[in-house]
Design a protein that fits this description.
The chain is an alpha/beta fold and 213 residues long. The protein contains 9 helices and 10 strands.
């Protein structure tokens, strides 16, 4: 099983993932919107008015999520390793849009009920086959897209039905570095991980950055 999943990982050029339960631990936090935030939150939801996913409708509440720095580093490593990255999520959140811009993800699809349809759109845009794509998920809504991808990855705290169909299960839980596990697994299978890590370290020295990301 391990050798088969490694063979699949060698072909991957595109890594896609869910947000809640993968980039985060799945918890959602709702806070009163500070002065001036109401208009921004409402505007972001309006931009996705044609989507079937879920968005906060109240102009007096904002949704917050916690992201792990190790996963931010994972995106940097993926880029250095030649992987395209992107998220597909049912929820619509300004916080997610901000994180996607921060990480410079190539693809950010929010408000998506049909994740499989979004996958096909992305593959067409990138000129890739499904065998060259991987998806990281945690719940049953992720199964259709996971089944279609060349490499399906479940986080450690995924539902059992999802783990049963995954080619690889991360050591860490969602929101605790699971995406980093996925990226390292793919790059290691492709024989790139050691070189990519050294490139990443060198880039931090050149830029004089002290933070992980």
């Amino acid at each position: 099983m391990k050798s088969m999943s490694q063979a699949r990982a060698k072909k991957i050029k595109l890594l896609l993932f869910d947000v809640d339960g993968v980039l985060t631990d799945g918890k959602l936090f709702f806070f009163p919107a500070p002065a001036g935030a109401e208009q921004s939150t409402r505007a972001h939801a309006a931009q996705h008015a044609d989507k079937a996913g879920y968005a906060i409708q109240s102009s007096s509440v904002i949704e917050a999520k916690g992201f792990h720095a190790h996963d931010g580093t994972a995106i940097s490593l993926a880029k250095l390793g030649g992987l395209k990255t992107g998220l597909i999520t049912k929820r619509i959140s300004e916080t997610v849009a901000l994180r996607a811009r921060d990480l410079k993800l190539e693809h950010c699809h929010q408000g998506i009920m049909d994740k499989l349809g979004a996958l096909h759109e992305i593959l067409k845009e990138e000129g890739l086959s499904a065998n060259e794509a991987a998806f990281v998920g945690d719940d049953v809504i992720d199964l259709p897209v996971m089944r279609a991808c060349g490499l399906s990855i479940a986080v450690a705290n995924a539902r059992e039905e999802v783990k049963d169909e995954a080619h690889f299960i991360t050591d860490h839980k969602g929101g605790e570095g699971a995406l980093r596990d996925a990226v390292e697994y793919i790059l290691r299978a492709q024989g790139k991980l050691a070189d990519v890590v050294e490139k990443y370290i060198a880039s931090r020295k050149t830029q004089g950055l002290g933070a992980r990301e």
